[in-house]
Specification:
about 140 residues; alpha+beta; Hect, E3 ligase catalytic domain fold; 2 domains; two-stranded antiparallel ribbon; 5 helices; 4 strands
Length: about 140
Amino acid sequence: MGHTPFGYRIEDGKAVVDDKAAEQVKELFSGYLSGLSLKNAAIKAGIDCYHATVSRMLQNKQYLGDEFYPSIIDEEIFEKARLEKQKRAEKLGRIWEPKDVPKTNYPVKFKAKPLVQKYDDPYKQAEYAYSLIESEV
């Protein structure tokens, strides 16, 4: 497991809620939903971090709870924060749509049957793939 999210600590190999930090996380979500900016919501909650860190905290699904982390934020508040973040990004024109990339067709000089079998051994897989070549063009 990587970095332990703000609001938790590890005790005896298990994640437990750090009560003081968990209250700050709840205050962060509350402040953001009340209209504060990311940075100002963090300042109000008493969390000293960068704008991008606050953004990632608002998107961290571990605060909802999973098999390792107990829940700090309920799903309704988490979803409201996600929608608010999306709304603000759209309002500021910060939604980037992926561009249609033209599909490149690479010319090949052979025809082959489709791969059906998969082998763990890469040499056996390559041997199998080469055996599917029907003809050279």
